[in-house]
Amino acid sequence: MSALKPDTLPEGAPFAIGAAIVHALRADPALAGVTVLDNPKRASDLQTGSRIVFFEDQADKLIEQPGQSAKRTYSFTVGVINRTEHDRRGAHADYRAAKRAVRNCLPAINALVRLESRGMVEGDVLYRLENIDVGGGLVLGLFTVDYRDPG
After folding, report:
1. Can you give the pTM of this predicted structure?
2. CB of 125 within 8 A of CB of 143?
3. How far apart, in Å, do the first and last CA atoms of the chain sit?
4. Alpha carbon distance 143, 129 (integer Å)
5. Cβ-proximal residues to 35 (8 Å cutoff; 6+ apart), any chain
6. How far is CA 50 from CA 6, 33, 67, 102, 112, in A?
7. Cα dist. 97→62, 127, 132 in Å?
8. Residue 112 has what DSSP assignment?
9. Which domains does the chain have, with CATH numbers?
């Protein structure tokens, strides 16, 4: 009987991918001065600061599992809230900067997992959340990452 190889991602691929994205958002010079939140737990977390970028896990779906390397699609949202004088313009600018930071971290994600054909894709973008008043401009984008889990 052969021994299993060591797990390179003990917290799992979704956690590792999300951590890489949050790190990229926090390190990006275009987002200097912005509060970056990792999976905010309460609505009150979104009330601190005039400029907020938040990352939130959504789902991790199994697509197929040939052999040992499962093909999966991980989805997450990146949202920005801007409460400055020009909140709508600021939210769009902050979202664009956040989107660039997320795309720029693809090499770091590819070092963790093997990206599949589509890699990362931006999906729907929302400008309002039902029954939630953020007190400023909001842009919320859904992203997916196709990958193979190494573990």
Report:
1. 0.90
2. no
3. 18
4. 17
5. 48, 49, 51, 52, 53
6. 44, 10, 49, 21, 33
7. 30, 16, 24
8. H
9. 13-40+47-137 (3.30.2000)
Give the span between the Cα atoms of 11 and 1, in whole angstroms.
Answer: 26
Q: Which helix (H) or strand (E) holds 86?
A: none
CA 28, 34, 38 angle in degrees (round to 5)?
Answer: 80
Q: Which residues are paired to 55 by β-bridges?
A: 38, 78
What is residue 109's DSSP assignment? H
Residuewise pLDDT in 10s, the chain (151 residues) = 456 566 778 788 999 999 999 999 999 999 999 999 999 998 888 888 899 999 999 999 998 776 667 889 999 999 999 999 999 999 999 999 999 999 999 999 999 998 987 889 999 999 987 777 788 999 999 999 999 887 6
* Structure-block tokens of residue 87: 């909140």
